[in-house]
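Quick one before lunch.
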Amino acid sequence: MDGIFLRPLCQADLDLYCRWQADPTVFGPYDAPAGCSLQHLRMRYSKTGMLSDKAGCLLVIARPAQPVGFVQYCRHCADAWVMWGSVFIAIPDMRGRGLGTAAHRSLCAYVFTRFPAIHKLECWTDRENLAEQRALAKAGFVHEGTLRARNRLRGAFRDMAVYGFIRTQWREPAP
Ligand SMILES: CC(C)(COP(=O)(O)OP(=O)(O)OC[C@H]1O[C@@H](n2cnc3c(N)ncnc32)[C@H](O)[C@@H]1OP(=O)(O)O)[C@@H](O)C(=O)NCCC(=O)NCCS
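Model of the coenzyme A complex:
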C-alpha cells in the first residue's frame, strides 16, 4: 500500500495550512503562493469543512500521521463532468520519495468515489515541471498535450502540460 493517505482538514490544521499557503517553497519554482488569511480559512472551514462539491482540499498524511502536503480539486467552470486537481508535497525534504505519485492516485480515488458524475480528472502543470509530470505519469495520467501561454507566472507567460485520467481507466481498489 502507498505510504500516504488523504484526510480532511480539521480545525487544528488551519494554522499550518495558512502558513503553507503563503510559503513559496511549498509551491516550488513553477507556481506562486496566493496567500490566504487565517480568518478567511476559518470562515471557509466553518461553511464546508474545505470540502464542497465545487472545490476542496485534503491533507496528504505520510504514515503514520505526519502532514506533508495537500491536494486540491476544483470543478471545471464549463464542463460539469471534469474536475481539476493539483498536488503539493509541501516539505521539500519529503519530495522525490514517491509521495506525490501516491497522492495523485489517492486524489483520483477520492474524486471518482465521492463524485459519481465526474468522468475526468485533469491536472495542468508547467511544461518545465518535470517532477510533477513524472509523478502524474507514474500515477497513470495520460499526457494529452501542451497549452501555450496558458499561465502567467511572475510576469512571464508559461506553457502548460495537460494530463488526464478518465473514470473508465480507474479501478476501485478491492476491499
Ligand atoms: C511535483 C510534486 C507534487 C511531485 O511529488 P514528489 O513526491 O516529489 O514525486 P514522486 O517522488 O512521486 O515522483 C517524482 C519523479 O520525478 C522525478 N524527478 C524529480 N525531479 C526531476 C527533474 N528535475 N527532472 C526529471 N525528473 C525529475 C523523480 O526522480 C521521480 O521519478 P522516479 O520515481 O522515476 O525517479 C512535488 O515535487 C511538489 O510538491 N513540488 C512543488 C509543488 C508542485 O510543483 N506541485 C505541482 C503543482 S502543478
